Automatic annotation (TrEMBL):
Name this polypeptide is given: PilZ domain-containing protein
All residue ranges annotated as the PilZ domain in the record: 103-211
Cross-referenced Pfam families: PilZ (PF07238)
InterPro entries reported in the protein's UniProt record: PilZ_domain
Entry GO MF terms: cyclic-di-GMP binding
Amino acid sequence: MIASPDILTDVPDAKPVRVFLPIAGSKERYRACGVYQKTEPPRFNLLFKAGVLPADALDVSIPCLIIIDMGGPNISVEAMITAASDQKLEMIVQKTISHDQMREFFRVDAATQVISKSFQPELFGKKETPWSKQGTTIDISGSGILAAFPGKVPMDEPIRLEITLPTEPPELVKVLAHPVRAVQIDDDRWEVAFHFDDISIEDRDKIIGCCLVIQRRLLRLKVQVRDIAK
């Protein structure tokens, strides 16, 4: 179903955007920066510098994700590629993704290594001994993670997280976060939810791209299970 043309009304021509492109035969998403070009809504074009766009490698059967920074809440849309050349993609919007939907859209089940560490206590005149705990993520999103640790982490201080994304090859992202809740599951296991406070655009894009891949994989699995059940 094609989304309403009104979605693109407030997007100015020549607006820089971030796009996550599906690649044929690959589980990964290609991250790129392009420029929005107005045409006739719900159609639009994305323009790229020479050598940036892998036009021949794109999988046009899978929707792309486009994130447009409007100086407040981002506009996020899924769109299909209708034509591709070396420096231009012709697109048609399928649907928008609200801020609340974005949080759920990018929250996927994923088990991967995470290390939590104290945040430079010496900078704040603290004398505590630096600490580190290795755990495993339960789910991950562009704004935070839920992870399991062999013990509770401090709940009243910022924490550095080093997350190894389950990509090919694995990528390490480092963020500053704070715990929002902790639940003791058994004697030596705590589940802790973190919200990211300081994360680079590049690292957030890595997480979002990873979540898109996992989500697509889960959707394929659901289809396969449904077909078997029939």
